[in-house]
Amino acid sequence: MAPRPVPDLNLRRDQITQAACSIAESEGWTAVTMRRVATEIGVTQPVLYSAFAGGRQALLEAVALQGFTAIADALDAVAPDPMSRMRAYLGFATSQPRLYEVMFSMPSGLPFGADDSPAPLRRAFAAIQEAFPGTDDTASEVAWATLHGLATLQISGRIPAGQAEARLNRAHAVLAH
Q1: Which residue among 20, 100, 120, 141 is the one 20 to 30 A from 111 at the CA level?
Q2: By CB neighbour count within 10 A (0-12 exposed, 13-18 middle, 19+ buried), where does 144 fall?
Q3: DSSP per position, 23-86
Q4: What is the pTM of this model?
């Protein structure tokens, strides 16, 4: 009998994160458990832990990092002017609310704004810095906080989506000074 081939760990991690995202999209992040993900992809829980030794938290952080790569891609795909980046940010957040939620609203051990911040976080913030430059990071941080607030309020339905462009225009007027 030939030995079993060693599975591709990156492929396995991708399968696991995709399953977690699929469950979250339909039922929310509370439904994403290691048992549920294992069942979803037809493996045992130890297989999940071999890919994510830190368990559910490590899985959620891996999904969040994928989200930061995706938002950086969305920001880099448009012109570096403030309005284009603001629209891209809000568009990303509102079109993928569950992904945005795991990136920003769930507990995370990911270091933000630190020397050891993962590359996807640094890249996403750099795209905001490019649109809102300054002598320090304050202008970029305030722009990011403003966009995050608008996105969070719109996703939750606390402010109507129909006024999104007007809000972005107002935010731009305030932030551009």
Answers
A1: 20
A2: middle
A3: HHHHH-GGG--HHHHHHHHT--HHHHHHH-TTHHHHHHHHHHHHHHHHHHHHHHTS-SSHHHHH
A4: 0.91
